[in-house]
Batch of 3 targets.
Target 1
Amino acid sequence: MIGRRFLRALRALYTVKFAESSAYRAQSALWMLGGLFPLIMWAIWRGIGTDPSYSQRDFALYYLFIFVARQFTPCWAIFVMDREVRKGELSARLMRPLDPLWNLAAEHWGEMSVRIPPVVLLFVLFLFISGYGADVPLRQMPLFLLGLAVGWWLNFSLHYCMAMLVFWTQSVTHFDSLMYRLFGILGGIFTPLEFFPPALAVVLHYLPFPYVMYFPAQLALGRLGPAATLEGFAIALGWIAIFTMLHRILWRLGLRKFAAVGA
Amino acid sequence: MRSNSAADKDRVAISLAHASKVYRVALKRPGLTGAIRGLFRRSYRDVQAVKDISFSIEAGEIVGFLGPNGAGKTTTLKMLSGLLYPSGGELCVLGHVPHRREREFLTQVTLVMGQKQQLSWDLAPMDSFLVNKAIYDIPEHVFSKRLDRLVDMLALTPVLDKPVRQLSLGERMKCELTLALLHEPRVLFLDEPTIGLDLNAQLAVRGFIADYNRLTGATIILTSHYMADVEALARRVIVIDHGQLRFDGSLAVLVEKHGPQKKLRIVLGEEVPTWVAQLAEYVGQDGREVTFAAERQRITALAARLLAELPVIDISIDDPPMEEVMGKLFAGAS
């Protein structure tokens, strides 16, 4: 009963958040333009040349899937919590018998849904321009989509943990800048992780950063065997469990500090 | 058979015992030097917003919660609604400890803040209503019935499908109330629900709150800077100032205790004789209308004398305005 009630609440929230995101199509388009960075990286690599482990085709498809992964693993939880706690807007959410986390999650799902048509259009356009349309491994798409879902949840959990610090620091937006840079470098947006020094690549393998965009892109390209695929999912889910436990603890402690100012 | 204390417990909807709240506020010195010092050494100050407050409210009561700005009213409401952890004391609302924020508690209370909104700004109010229907798990037929009643009471039909950003302040407030009451809470915390509204909207909201209380038996705590709200709705008032309880009782007793002077107004059928202005109780006059102020005990005798000696064509005796009573109360306390 509780499960069904919870799902009904999520569906209603998603519907409203989708409608809200649709009302701000221009803003969504601007967000998407910011996400074109991987395609610029592809253009740069195209000029540099090839590598034994990455052909021109590999680079093109890698950055294409990184672009798609970036569009569907966004997180602005830090910005929202920063605003809602500082301005007291969280109070209204706290009065409802549903954890505010779900409101925020639904907001992301709504925005991502609005992005589906333009991302598909850009995806097809890119394949047409690059000439690699026939090289897309369609069989890998279910795993890629699963990787995206896990990647988004991992990214959301990590950002939500950071967002909880607002109860102590009053402002956390600088953490978002930090996360952006870390994911840019360690998450595979700038360059595939195979080009990192081996020692760093080993460490990165056990950190959460590669499992948001790099890992789904690797799944899409079919570069991982069954064992590496399972290991990747296990590491990602492990981090999700850790971050979820952490933000639950921080949430409980943080609410004691919440001053509900301004509202 | 149930004991009397158990029955009493059932009747009490809200209780606070020695509740207090201390905020820790970071101090910032002005200027560049202050900012640099703040980087290395932060200093804090404890602000006691609520000090050792105790009261209880029975189920179905409407209580006016009064006090000047910064008195601790909103902090108390936030503690009672579970938004704030109290620094001390015990709070209980409908048998629940508010800050635990259990689902059963949250589905039975609501907090309406006149200056904050829960409605989705870009969507029609109906969208927000449907979200609350799902979150509070309100069955379809119950939702329709409640919504119809609320829409009818607040005359909301024309605005249900308009984006919230296009609504007037009064319309928005009515929609906020509807949203906050769809789950039919048993306890309402209303913080300045009529702030900024024009007179018609104030009257509509006031009438609605009274009707809601009558129809559902809900317990209501109301803060308002408009004394007319309190006078129209609350028989009992709780007054706090500087975080401390100053008064808890009926409006009539508050007025009697802190506004002992009544106002006597007469209108004469001819010019006002000069001796009237010499009376100790004389306050002023406007043409043939004269105003006096005196203690309750003396006002009747004065009225009788004036009626006997002057051609009075109209007379009224009124309590002093609530604003005046409150002003005296707070002036006496400070």
Target 2
Amino acid sequence: MISERQSALERIVALAESHGIAADEIAQHMTMPKTPERQGGIVKALLAYTGGTFIFAGLGLLGSMIWPDIGPLQRVVITLGPGMVAFVLGMVAHREFRFAKAVTPLFLVAAFLQPAGLFVFLDEFVPRAGEPELAALIVFGVLTLQQGMAFAQLDRASLLFLTLIFWLAFIGTTMVWLDVDGDVTSITVGLSALFLGHFAAMRGHHSITPFWYFIGGGCLLGGVFAAVQVGPAEIAYLGVNGFLVYLSIRLASRAMLVVAVFGLIGYLSYFTYEYFANVIGWPVALIVMGLVMIGVSAYAFKLGRGMGGAGR
Amino acid sequence: MKRFFKQNYALVMGIALPLALIAVFFLAGKASVMSVPAPQYDAVFATNYSPNSANTPYRIGIDDGKLYIRYRRPKTGKVPRYLREPVIYVFDHKALYAKKIDIDFQNVVDGKIMDPELDALNRSRINADPKSPDGYIFERYSRGGSGLFGGLFGWGRYNRGTHVLRKGVRTVPVVGARAISAYSTHFIGWIEK
């Protein structure tokens, strides 16, 4: 597993070699005091982002105000249209180094507007007699394919992140449509998120891995708990939780460790309340549980430090 | 291909696992539907009605295979401020659709509601047994919540109908033109041919 630091260093070396920059030039630049021009660059970026947000909000509000007065085609055009344009612009901007910073915001805007536009399209042009889950399946399925293919082409972390969001939404919606129990859906979504988070780590996209490990671990533990709660297999939850702790050590993931520790502490609280609440030893059990929590958290902290600069 | 799977096992598992589970649940659902025949009898039920409620002046029942609706003026002489008249539905087992029966609750004769729609309904015999002759039961849809995604988007159970006809593993949602209340719904009987 390549740490983020190591990965960053390798990128710097690759850039320096491709532009013929020597090591002492880099060191010189790093020690240079921040000039007013550089500080002004921060202000410029801040104002640009804030301005962009205002424009986006204003356009959204304008759209909502004129919504009752426009026809179906116009509604689709003002929602899906900008989304598709933003996506295409993102693909084009990726090829131009000077627009590198605009790529992720464009893809994010597209990811927000395209599903909205597709839902508007289905609402306006498709008869309402069907099931709404089916409409969502179509929307999320199409967007998963779109984002997935774009990721396969461009190999960007933002595209992989968006692909995972749409993929998990597609899976969850399909299972709701099939009347699958919520706990089974949660376990499936959690496992898928964990595997795909690991795939992201294997591809070097460590910036998004902690988030998916956290979400995946949380969904998995929540689903398992709901499935085995108040039953003979209740203790099996501890097995799954323990496995998640082991996995977090193997993968050097602090995010997964955090969710596993929270899951364990939560289960201990539930177990104590469920079986010891009416027993005279309840206060004693609380104290013991508190000491256990401190012990577990200290051990988890030690483990986390041991993971060092893995940053996952 | 082997090399692809070895290098991308996480991607393959992340995609294949949920798809496999979806396929299993889909096929299991279809198999359960095929093993149990469709319902053969129409069901009659009422909403906005609870037989145990002291506030309602209406009493719905079956007498010798005929549906009756009795009206009893409240003892205080005062009509409740918000009088809710029951709504009678007939669930068509062929169309799988619950149709509302329009009844004039103002036409009270000898303490009973008289209406041509009721008379038309009473041309067939109505069986008050909770279980239909072909084994179906009318009940509230009591499965667990629609889960995270259903909850987030407000889908799942409510759109399928709050009540179902159930026999074994097969459930037939009872849906009508308007949402049927999950509460204060009372099963009346099965229409026998």
Target 3
Amino acid sequence: MNARLLRAPALVLIVALSASCLTHLSRAKQHYAEGQTRARAFQAGQAVAHWKKALDEAGRACRRNPSAQSFTVKGLAEANLGLWREAEASFLQAFSLGFDEGEAWASDSALAGLAASFESLSLEVPALRIYAQLVDKSGFKPALMVAAERRTNLVLARASGLDPSEKERTLAALNKAIERLLDRDFACGLYHYLHAQVDGHLGDLRRSYEEAVMARELGLPSEKIGRDNDNQLVYCYVRLKDTLPAPDRGALTAAQARWAAKWGWPDDRTPAWKRE
Amino acid sequence: MSKKDIETALARGVEILEEFLPLKSWLLFPVLYAACVWAVRRVFDYRERILAWQVWLDPEFVRTKPDEFVLDFFAGHDELHREYAAEIESGDLRVLRAAFPALYPVFGLEDAFLKALFKAELAAADYRAIVVEFAARTAKARDGIAPAAADPAFWRALILIGVEAASLGLHLLKDEEVQDMIVALIKGPAGLGPTVPPEA
């Protein structure tokens, strides 16, 4: 009788605890998804706030009822916040609880963290080697995007000191690497932005313009990159307009006028934010 | 709305912000002005925006721009063109590239906070002073704002100040009018000295 009496509250307690764990995990997922949405809208502050909340909720879920899912969401939030070492540990836990990709994600997170440490110590060569490895092999998008951006910046910085033919070879190879990334994920605005930057260095303004337009349409990870992309786009457009033969110039001007109207620019060469 | 109402709202804003920032801090102007600009534009991620100027551009980001882009930036901006006419003419990229990391975030990316931080130099068209001052002043601003930035009440107050000013029709005033209004309020009674900013 007593055992039966105790069983009912215990059952209620178990259900309540499970529901509460489920709530933490589902809240963590909601915050993580909201962070992604905010990041796409250039609301970096709010994105970070949501990822922090996701991390907090996922942490609670991991403590109360460790699961592959809760550790995966925790690791994703940590990766987005640049906490690579913590992300590595979370993904390893997720792997041990049955998330098959967790091991590879942990390894990529560890590499991203290591490269960042090398860079902070001004050890650019080993950092570059790790970023190249991630760009070629990683299937974990947060690490891949960081590696692609950092590698491009480092290679461009080093290329400025090379003689023209060597520089061209280096930049062409860099573009090939970015194109391989685009083959894997053509909808990633950041890769198009990086391509536009390299094209600018190679003097291929037409391609740089087209890539910058695509980057703008697909979205970029931060406002600073978005504004720089707009500047690159306008720079290429103005230069192209000055150099193209009349029929091509007309087509370019018409296309740019349509884009400008779509983006809400006051004219073909003034981004809306320049009026702020 | 009347100009007087806005002025009263901004005066209240100065009063409130002085609780968070050191008395008569030279950060009052850029923080308050940036809050007003963003409120008019209905963007309220102030915290991120104000703190973002610290890392507005990764150093490599600027370092890697092609020479043609740098030249075009200087040549395409009337006032910078005037100031750097000799360097542009002679293609002196050493000077232009050295100035680019300071001037591109201010003129090329048009950050309201940075523009306010260098208001005195911009008003005096002393662009070379921005280049000289950039690293030191942005570092100083970062350190100066840190205690206030750690207090959530500071960010709440900033949003309320901006929203109130915007609701009173701040957007109907010219940028310069708003700036002058804030400067006058911050200067306060004669004798306390200007606070916008000390190095200028």
